[in-house]
Amino acid sequence: MIDTLNFRLNNVTKYPLTRTQYEATTSTGETHVVVDENTGEVADNRKIRAILHHDSDSLIPLSKRSTIYIKSSHYSVSYFYNITQDFIDFNLSIPKYLYGTNIIQFVKYFSQDCNTTYDALVDFVKSFVHKHFIDVIDMKDIELTRLDLCYNQFFNSKFDAMKYLLEQKELLTKHARSTKNDYRNYDSSFMYITKRYSFKVYHKGTEFFKNDRKELIKKNPTGHGVDELKEISDKILRYEVTFRKAQINYLFEQKECHLPYVKFLQNESARKSFRLLNRDLYDRSIEFCEQGKHFVFAPISQDEAIRTQTVSFDRIIFAHMFNFFWDTVKKYQLKQRLSVYDVVKKVDDLNKKRDQATSKALRAKLSYNKPMIVALATLTQYESIDALRKSGLFSKPTFYRYQKKLKDLGIDSEARLTDMPPPTLDYVDYKYYFGRHHIK
Which helix (H) or strand (E) segment is 321 a member of? Predict the structure, then answer.
């Protein structure tokens, strides 16, 4: 469910041992390799930006990029240490960190709901901080900067997965075009990128063969054979939403998650009273509401939130991200194509309700023109709604009126499948292949 995690350790100078641990550079630019005695993991400090003072031949490092190698896996965690601005950014895939591949997902066996997923994420972050930093870290200094939510959808075969992907690309690009964003279409994937978030769907088997397979051949901690993982991944379409800080902030404001921090602004009457009582705090509260927030893994008081633009990354904001992810995935689910007889039966069933209505207005509202509905319903399963609308076959008022009636019947452009059942959005197949990794 959760894949890529980017977080930032702020105020590094508060933690002298950790600072030394990740800085570790001599005056001549040589690199010190830091090895964790408990885990055997290595912080390989390879790329360093620095100022060279020629009068003293001293180096003052500005920033550095490096990796933490995971002893039990081929995988490594990237980090960027901005020494001048006093923070370290970490970038990792949680499943690859834990299992060596993200075919195995970061989920709990007995529940994949929002609260369980949130608790698992927080536990992981705390565990990572405890394991990889020598100092005891205040979690208020751990700031979330990016989070990817994902889902692996299983099909009966690679053929079914690729055919489903092809149908998605033909019909559902309207969701990308409608937002006027950067839409990209490839042989085994498609994606679109907005200023706040990205969404992509791709064939996992193709990606696995290009990337994870060659690394797992070198070192494989999964307990599965590489060929077995390739065979399983061929049956998977993967959905991913990348939440950048801008999207997390957008959802935070859209869902009014700021209100618990500024309760005195919840209604106009309270707002006017508070403005008179404490104008300075009122102005700072308005500024808090209007500016972007820093999301940290710790409780934050009202005063601290207003003063620092920092809020807690709590289960409420995560729930909005969780729901946004699944709403996006559901937009890209295809339905079983209906036969003409199926459509006729649906129309007949609704016309029975019309005949039972006592109100003349209600009967008119429930009335369905069977020939028109059947013809349009059949067309929509072969051509997109947008194409039909632009064809000029119907006037705009007629088209939109019948489009609404089709929606009432449960018929839309996503009804494209003929020779396969619609795939599920659950974890039953996933547990069959990988459940043992999650039972503890």
Answer: helix 315-331
